[in-house]
Structures are given as C-alpha cells and as structure tokens.
C-alpha cells in the first residue's frame, strides 16, 4: 500500500471522503504505482505509449466512463471519478487525458446526446477499453471560439457528408470512433463517426514537448459519408460540445492537483535526503518556506476540488464554478511544479524525477479544455452579468 501523501495528512483530507471513495481511490493509486509509474518516464521520453493495452487495463479497473450509468459503466459519483483522475494524473497528465477523453468527452457525448442504438453499439465496448474514442471539436483556426468551426456536414439524400479538419485530438490516430462536431444548415450538430469510414484519416502529431505520453492527432474528413443514424439526435448548437467539455474540465480540477501533489512529494523527499553545506536541504528556512507555501496551495486545491465534486454530485454545479476550479488548480499546479524544480536543482530537469515532466504536461493542461483567459471571462460574466467574449 502506498504511503499517505504529506498534504493529505497535513489537512486531514481523507476525513472529507466516504470509505468507499477512499477504497476506490486507493485501488486506482495502487494500479498507478504498480502498472504505470515504473514505465512513464520511458513512455514520455520516447513519445510512445501502449494505448490499446492500457485502455483494456483501465477498462478492467472500471475507470472508463465510471461516472456514467448503464451500458457497462459503473455509475459512480462525480467525486469518485475526480479522485481517480487525481491519482492517474499524479503519474502523468497524458494518462488522465486518455481516461478523460474516453469517458468525459467521447462516451459522455454518446451517453448524453446519442440514440439508444448508438449507446448500445459503442458504450459497452468503450467502457471495457475494447473500443477507443476521440472527440473532434478544436480546429486549426478555431480553439477558444468553437462556434466559428469550418467543418461542415451536408445532406446528400438521406446521408450526411462531412468535410473539414480537426486539430489537437487526443487518441485520434488509434480511435475506433470519433465524435465530430460540424456546421449544418440547422446549426452545429454532433456525429458518431467510425474511424474506418472512407475519407476519414488521423495523422499523428509529432515533435511535442508536452503530453508526450499521449497520442495527439489531426482529424481529416474528406467527403466522409454517414447514414442519417450517425447524428447525435439530442445535441443541437454549442450546448452539446460545451456540456461535454464541462465534464472534462471537472476531471482536470482534480487531476491537476495530482500532478502538483506528486511534484511536492518528490521535492519533500529530495530535500530530506539532499545534503547542502553538511545538513539536509530540508533543514533550511528557505526550503521549508517553499514547501509550506506549496503545501497550502495544494491543500486548498484539493479542498476546492472536493467541494466542486459534492456540488456536482448534488446536481448543483455551474459552468462558472468548474471554470473557477480549472483556472485556480491548473494555475497553482504549474506554479508548484516550477517551484519544486528549483528545490531539485539540476536534477529537476531530468526524467529521473517527475517534476519537469509534470511541468511540461501542465503547459498543455493550462491551455486545453479552455484557456485560462476563457475561464477568467467565464467567471467575469458570472460576477458582472456582462459577456466580454466579443
């Protein structure tokens, strides 16, 4: 059994959780420590990750779509899902991204907006990891403004024909199914696209310095012909994709604190064993001040995540509250990673320790599922009643 993290002990965080939540969290933590942590530095360094094998193992663990009901999904609470995200991102943001895109974007979209036939066809296989999904919203020229997307879906008889390009798509090149959003004569609609459909391709994006233990791709749709049954019947306009993004952002509120916690634990362990001027680095006031300040921020981030989890479990959470969580927790996590790097000195830039890897990954987490600026404006709109997006 893994030791209890120092920040958890400091603020008695487990006292805020139910026994079943702790049990599931610890199960995910053990899996992460035993199956993922020994390999993650190599996966990151070589930009290669065995997604197919991991998806099946994660499906067996029960974390794929774990917060959804039915169709082979566990139907667990949002807080429990968040705790799983926290433990997975304590290993690497790329691992949490795999779970998040599968469960909170692709599976959630089909579960929430899809037909019964779509749900029965895809969700049970996605829950086990047999089938992998991706989510195509962002385009080369449209990230923060998804409403401007240029991907189109046009009627050809009873069929739909899709044309366009999506960018920065996690799991894209190994996915079996893509949830693709496109402009139609009736506004933005979502489509369930089997990736073996003629005209669909997903070239992988290389030369990344962040999220290297994650597959990132472009989606290219060239006269992709789909039957009428491919459209998500309950999704119209931007509400569909933005609701799904809210689910993924919620996981990041927890996950980013996993990365921050891992950096802090690494820095504490290092400071206790590294001797400088004949005494441990941890015995110096400046080091203790850094550790104390970071522990406070990581602790507050956990408390915020737990609070938002309880709100979501009661069905009371708002988009502005999720934005508050992502803005604060990712911003603090990346600051913690950078500060921990200073405690490790030159060792902090090597993959022998996880700190620089987390810092690099968090640069992507800071941007995706809504940039910090977008979340600031979402919070500003909630505070003032005025929209500053345009």
TrEMBL record:
Its cofactor is FAD. SUPFAM superfamilies: Acyl-CoA dehydrogenase C-terminal domain-like, Acyl-CoA dehydrogenase NM domain-like. Gene3D superfamilies: Acyl-CoA dehydrogenase/oxidase, N-terminal domain, Butyryl-CoA Dehydrogenase, subunit A, domain 2, Butyryl-CoA Dehydrogenase, subunit A, domain 3. Residues 134-224 form the Acyl-CoA oxidase/dehydrogenase middle domain. It comes from the Bacteria. Residues 19-130 form the Acyl-CoA dehydrogenase/oxidase N-terminal domain. Keywords: FAD, Flavoprotein, Oxidoreductase, Transit peptide. Residues 236-383 form the Acyl-CoA dehydrogenase/oxidase C-terminal domain. Belongs to the acyl-CoA dehydrogenase family. This is Acyl-CoA dehydrogenase family protein.
């Amino acid at each position: 059994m893994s030791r209890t993290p120092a920040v958890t002990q400091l603020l008695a965080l487990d006292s805020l959780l139910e026994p079943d939540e702790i049990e599931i969290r610890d199960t995910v933590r053990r899996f992460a420590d035993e199956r993922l942590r020994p390999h993650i530095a190599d996966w990151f360094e070589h930009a290669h990750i065995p997604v197919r094998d991991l998806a099946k193992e994660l499906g067996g663990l029960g974390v794929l779509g774990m917060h959804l009901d039915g169709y082979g999904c566990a139907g667990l609470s949002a807080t429990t899902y968040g705790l799983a995200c926290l433990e997975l991102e304590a290993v690497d943001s790329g691992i949490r991204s795999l779970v998040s895109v599968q469960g909170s974007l692709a599976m959630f979209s089909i579960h929430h907006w899809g037909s019964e036939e779509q749900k029965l066809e895809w969700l049970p296989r996605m829950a086990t990891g047999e089938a992998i999904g991706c989510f195509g919203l962002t385009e080369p020229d449209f990230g923060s403004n998804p409403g401007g997307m240029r991907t189109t879906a046009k009627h050809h008889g009873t069929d739909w024909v899709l044309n366009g390009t999506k960018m920065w798509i996690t799991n894209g090149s190994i996915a079996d199914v893509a949830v693709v959003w496109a402009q139609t004569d009736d506004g933005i609609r979502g489509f369930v696209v089997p990736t073996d459909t003629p005209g669909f391709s997903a070239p992988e994006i290389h030369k990344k310095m962040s999220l290297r233990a994650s597959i990132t791709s472009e989606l290219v749709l060239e006269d992709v012909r789909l039957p009428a049954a491919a459209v998500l019947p309950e999704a119209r306009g931007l509400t569909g994709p933005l609701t799904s993004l809210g689910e993924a952002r919620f996981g990041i509120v927890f996950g980013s604190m996993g990365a921050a916690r891992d950096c802090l634990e690494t820095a504490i362990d290092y400071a206790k064993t590294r001797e400088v001027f004949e005494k441990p680095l941890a015995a110096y006031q400046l080091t203790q001040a850094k550790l104390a300040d970071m522990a406070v921020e990581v602790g507050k981030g956990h408390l915020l995540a737990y609070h938002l989890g309880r709100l979501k479990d009661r069905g009371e959470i708002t988009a502005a509250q999720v934005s508050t969580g992502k803005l604060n927790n990712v911003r603090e996590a990346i600051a913690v990673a950078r500060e921990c790097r200073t405690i490790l000195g030159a060792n902090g830039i090597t993959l022998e320790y996880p700190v620089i890897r987390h810092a690099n990954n968090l640069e992507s987490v800071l941007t995706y599922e809504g940039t910090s600026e977008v979340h600031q404006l979402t919070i500003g709109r909630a505070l003032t009643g005025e929209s500053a997006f345009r």
